[in-house]
Amino acid sequence: MSTPAKLGGFAAILAVVLAVSFGIGRAVGPVGGTADTSHHTSTKDRRTAEVDDYTVTLRGDLTVARASELTFEVQRDGRPVTDLVPYIDSDGRLVIVGTGEPTFIPVHAERSRGNPAEVGPDLVFHTTVPSAGTYRLQLDFQHDGATHHAEFVLRSTTDATPNPTNPTDHGTHGG
User: Fold this and answer.
1) Domain covering 38-155 assigned CATH 3.30.420.40 in the classification
2) Over the stretch 34-56, which tens digit does the pLDDT of each residue have?
3) Which one of 19, 79, 163, 169 is least enclosed by Cβ atoms within 10 Å?
């Protein structure tokens, strides 16, 4: 077997192992195939997630081919959570999966500013999406010895198009 063939086989095995390890096997689909997005039919934005005793709210928009800032505020029983525990060597992890074309974007939260012992209630991520469409966002964060998974749905926008489901978005203004 040639060296490129061996490397290709190794890469395929590594992709499957990583997908299973991070719980994303459904999203990436079979090796060499396209993503199975049949179970992601919602095209409406979902900016709030209830998970365990937590409420997580998403602020920000995905703008096609431009840097986007997404902020997730974590609350428990109506109070901001300020003692989140780092997860996979960052304050949180976000996986963005395209529902139209096969897109998989892993993103780690920016390190907290100020007191490093206080993480939260906001987890901030910077990312870029390649095309217009609907994306499923999976946020992982740790608190009180457990990992929590919150899911959101967000439609990408173009630079000048306000997102009607985000009341703080007024589009891009020249200036």
Assistant:
1) no
2) 333 444 455 689 999 999 999 99
3) 79
